[in-house]
Amino acid sequence: MRKVFARDQVALDRIVLTVCRGERVALIGPSGAGKTTLFRLLNCTLRPTSGKLWIDDEDVESLNGKDLRRTRSRIGSVYQQHNLVPRLRVIHNVLAGQLGRWATLQSLLSLFKPADVEIARQALQQVGMPEKLLERTDELSGGQQQRVAIARVLVQNPDVILADEPVSSVDPSLASTIVRLLIEISQNRHKTLIVSLHSVDLALAYFPRVIGIKEGRVSFDLETSKITEGMLEDLYSGNFRDHSMTEAISERVQSVAYPSVG
Ligand SMILES: Nc1ncnc2c1ncn2[C@@H]1O[C@H](COP(=O)(O)OP(=O)(O)O)[C@@H](O)[C@H]1O
Ligand SMILES: [Mg+2]
Predict the structure, then answer these.
(1) How far does the centroid of ligand 2 lie from the alpha carbon of residue 247, in Å?
(2) What is the DSSP letter of 6?
(3) How far is the CA of 34 from the centre of ligand 1 (A)?
(4) pLDDT for residue 130
(5) φ, ψ for residue 183 (rounded to 5)?
(6) Considering only CA atoms, which residue is closest to atom 10 of ligand 1?
(7) Are 126 and 185 in contact (CB under 8 A)?
(8) DSSP per-residue codes, 148-162
(9) pLDDT at 100 (0 to 100)
(10) What pLDDT, on the 0 to 100 scale, is given for residue 135?
(11) Helix, strand, coil distribution of the chain in percent, nearest 5
(12) pLDDT of residue 244
């Protein structure tokens, strides 16, 4: 795929990728490399300028309104800024994953059925904070709000989870917890997971496949064990360590219990 914005701004070029069902992939690369644009192509909110995107064996370009909405609903997105409605209670934000549309949600407000409350409670249980159901979303910490965003995706129950820098606005000590949570969800519920990460260490620690994006192109796309320091230096134009976490955090990441997330 290729994506060119107005004024000949080439955001992505010659992107050729295949991600298999159930795969877990990290995207890394400097700011402005094109990671967010790639996510927007993948979740069908942006169309490639040229080239094609297939989801299963469907050519996304050929999908009309209803089929496109159905395809989009199979893809759940988690963003750096969690896209929650701050003044609503947690339960409303979580159940938005089910409703899909804000107009519907806002007209319902407090009128949730007991079954819905149970769905929301279970999703919050899975992200480790069932007790927050009725709290106001803006009274939670950044890390807790990101868990609400993940609970919302659980309720949506998509086949694919795209998380664009999900831990960039989260306290670094919580970043690995949230990445592990995403990994566990993808493993336990057989979901394809694609995550872009500012932290190279988190990408290398948790993902079997890492794709480096630089200046709109794939710089490498490899099994994690095959990635060298030189490739990372090249990806970040010699500033690789500046883009990484501090050594202390990196050590903690490397010492976390690996087996539980595979
Ligand atoms: N809506 C847009 N209009 C014009 N240029 C854009 C738009 N979105 C992104 N870009 C440009 O595309 C390039 C890639 O951006 P982005 O995908 O956000 O990179 P990353 O997420 O890796 O930081 C950048 O040069 C950015 O300025
Ligand atoms: Mg981005």
Answers:
(1) 24
(2) T
(3) 6
(4) 92
(5) -65, -45
(6) 11
(7) yes
(8) HHHHHHHHH--SEEE
(9) 54
(10) 94
(11) 45, 20, 35
(12) 56
Q: Which of 42, 44, 147 is nearest to 93 (CA)?
A: 147
Please report which ligand is nearest the Cα atom of 15: 1
Predicted confidence (pLDDT) per residue in 173-184, tens digit: 788 999 999 999
Q: In the 8-state DSSP scheme, what is residue 51?
A: S
Query: What pLDDT is stored for residue 243 in this prediction?
Result: 59
Regions of the chain with pLDDT less than 50: 101-103, 107, 245-262
For residue 37, the surrounding DSSP H or E stretch is: helix 35-42
- Please tell me the distance between residue 166's alpha carbon and the centre of ligand 2 in angstroms: 10
Pocket of ligand 1 (CB under 6 A): 5, 9, 11, 29, 31-37
C-alpha of residue 188 to centroid of ligand 1, in Å: 33
Pick from 5, 27, 79, 211 the residue to mutate for probing ligand 1's pocket: most ligand atoms within 8 Å of its CB.
5
Query: Can you give the pLDDT at residue 173?
Result: 79
Nearest protein CA to atom 27 of ligand 1, as residue: 32
Q: Which tokens sit at 179? A: 């990445």
Calpha distance 82→163 (Å, rounded): 10
Tokens of 154: 């659980």
From ligand 2's centre to the CA of 126, what distance in Å? 27
Neighbours of 74 (CB within 10 A): 16
Q: Which atom of ligand 1 is nearest to the CA of 38?
A: 17
Q: In angstroms, rounded to a whole number, what is the distance separating the alpha carbons of residues 204 and 4?
A: 30
Report helix angle 172-188 to 247-255, nearest 10.
Answer: 30
Closest residue by Cα to atom 16, ligand 1, is 34
CB 93 within 8 A of CB 84: yes
Please tell me the distance from the alpha carbon of residue 54 to that of residue 115, in angstroms, as a whole number: 35
